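Model the whole thing, not chain by chain.
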Amino acid sequence: MIDLVGYGAFFLTTALIFSLVTLGLNLQWGLTGLFNVGLAGFVAIGAYTSALLTTPDDPARLGGFGLPILIGWAGAMVVGGIAAALTGMATLRLRSDYLAITTFGVAVVVQLVALNAQKLTGGPFGIGFIPRPFGSLAETPLLFNLSNLAVVSAVALIAYLALEHLSRSPWGRVLKALREDERAAISLGKSARFYRVQAFGVGGAIMALAGALQAHFTGFIAPDNYLPILTFQVWVMLIVGGSGSNLGAVVGSILVWAIWAGSGTLTSVLFAPEQQARAASLQIVAIGVMLCVILLIRPNGLFGDIPRRPRLGKRAKAAAAKSSSGS
Amino acid sequence: MNETVLDVRNLEAGYEPGVPIVRGASITVGQGEIVVVLGPNGAGKSSFIKAIAGLVPISGGTVLLDGKDITAAPAHTMVRLGLAFVPQTENIFPLMSVEDNLRVACGILERREIPGRIEEMYAAFPDLVRQRRTAAGNLSGGQRQMLAVARALIVHPKVLVLDEPSAGLSPKFVSMVFEMLTGIRKSGVTILLVEQNAKAALAIGDRAYVLVEGKDRHEGIASELWNDPIVAELYLGQRPQHQKGGMA
Amino acid sequence: MSLQFIVDGLLTGSMIGLGAIGVTLTYSILRFSNFAHGDFMAWGTYATLAVVSAIGAIVGKVAPIAPLSFGWPLLVALVVGMAFTALLALLLDKVLFSRLRSQGQAIIVVMASFGASMALRSLLEFTFTSRPTYFSRAIQIAMPVGFGIRVTPDQIALLLLTAILVLGVHLLMTRTQTGRSMQALSQNAALARIVGIDVARVVRVTWIIGGALACVAGVMIGILVQIRPFMGFDMLLPMFAAAILGGIGSIPGAVLGGLIIGFAEAGAVQLIGAEWRAAVSFIILMAVLFVRPIGLFGVRER
């Protein structure tokens, strides 16, 4: 029973960290219509930044600086936010596809740096001994898990409330307006474009914070944690929950993580150990198909608010009509 | 009136389902005629003509071309059915050469017929010959309009349908375009056009319709309509707008 | 530094360029960046490999065409693989992309292509495992051609094949009615329909060309490097960068962009080490976006 509670707390902690990433993505995509297929990169930036700042000194690499955990988290948000804002700035005037490609590139490069810049990131072996908020409780796993859950819940709740507030503020309404009409958004003045960069930056900061939380929760990070599969999982979470809805982002994350963890457990029970890598790839196939099916039949997910057919200009209409005849 | 070529009955059409912009408009166009559709801004003239060309979803009514029902025909089959459309704007492919603009429209012609047909268009529009290798996006406004019309004519359409051919042109080009249309009619092509520039259009047209709120409200001989008080009234109590570039 | 990077750059550039043609066509005609394009490459390569094995099982061992490392079965298999990849692209368009396109939200299609990419790649991993495999394990002797450059016969053959294919696609695009229709559709979709172009048909041709070339690029990688489920996904960033560098919609641009990135990668491998190869595309991509986002041969979007 106690085990079950412990596992439940552990599960929820992970799911809520995912929720935080999904909330960041929802600000970028759901609210602003900015497409980020490299979010794993921003999560990794947060995790590595915080790890560098807070770990004890290690002669094999830069740092660590042994700073307090909260400073690590703040640092993660700053660095992640700046990285995202720069990415947004590069593609500000261009169609969203360019942003997608650029973020994809960011993730590739972050992965490359994590693997190869040993002096900074510890290379393929990653960084260990990342201080845990309640490390002293590690002997009583239940208490440890519950206190972790409490911290992560608190952070997720703060992020949720802040984002809810933001999306109802004038700032959020401008973002939504920009989302509805990308052409207008691009042709609008500098200030409107800057709104988009802000949203992308804040979203990136939230993702980085999630990465930092995860790093301090597990105490160990490695490049493998930040492969494209992470990006993919978070996207599925947002789409299932419903783009544009913060509640959807949280619920979708918990739901998809439950499906993911459940099917993972199932494959480990059903398949022989040597077959498990293959079974795991089948798991990804299933989730990929699920994503496509949801996009096809219920693009709003559970709680989404993006109108199915946004008001289009005549040109876009002609294009839409064109493609329907092309099916 | 001659034998009817284009017969549009009670046409209803609009972009959004349930929100018709064209609400039961009917017109007929006889062989060899120039028929003008006039109307105040927002009357649905452009949507009406685009619906005929298959570009706006039709929710009711019929369009007959030479007695054949073409109501639901996809836009890309219209040239084969004998209806060629010239949009108001963006009516050329800007990055393709003038010659390729003509050639790309020849999909329904026999392969061996194409070079001769292109030369015929150059003969009819000599301005285009010198520019044949130029990217169409570099042409002047009047030349673009010529290219767009030549591109429509190249496939021997029964009916040429134009959406505001004078829009955005300088007065000199406006008169040129309308002269061109009279020339085309002489060669036996039937013409249906929508115009803001009522005076210039009525000067070359045979008959005209006035479209108001998506419905045809008045019909008459073009030359008489200019002084028709009903027309003035339909134009919200004003005379059809006088444009400086009109063919006075 | 050794001049060998010229050959390496040409080869890498050819692979990237062939793939980038598909990316640039999909983007300019269907108006979305297809993240599944790399996986078309991998699927085409595995399909070709499967056909080679099948032929081997039926007719027994076939001697390679001297001095190449492969025999006629690979050529036959390549043609089958190209057809298979084209069909795969058409199928994916039918069940997924075309339906989303008709809803009018281009970026949703990008999302779907990302999901499809994950599913396709993992399906390959499931079927063939992630272990690398090869068309031939024979080691070819590289011939010195002067200036310290060495080339294998396979490399020469594949460069020739690339040149022929690129020329072929270029002629198709500029000299045929189909090619003009494709240009027309990418410049103004509504007008393309008005002038009588059957959009559905042009879309099919686009997928067929893109898919078939992706397969060739994949098989090149398979012959010269190795075959892995991730082989296409790893090419995605270079291909996108090449398409953008060349100017979206431009076939010569995509090929030239591919060659530039190929040379830059080959140079970087010599100067700073192979592990940083993947960063080259990103740096070039960022430079293009900041300096000239329309690329070398591009035109401003209307």
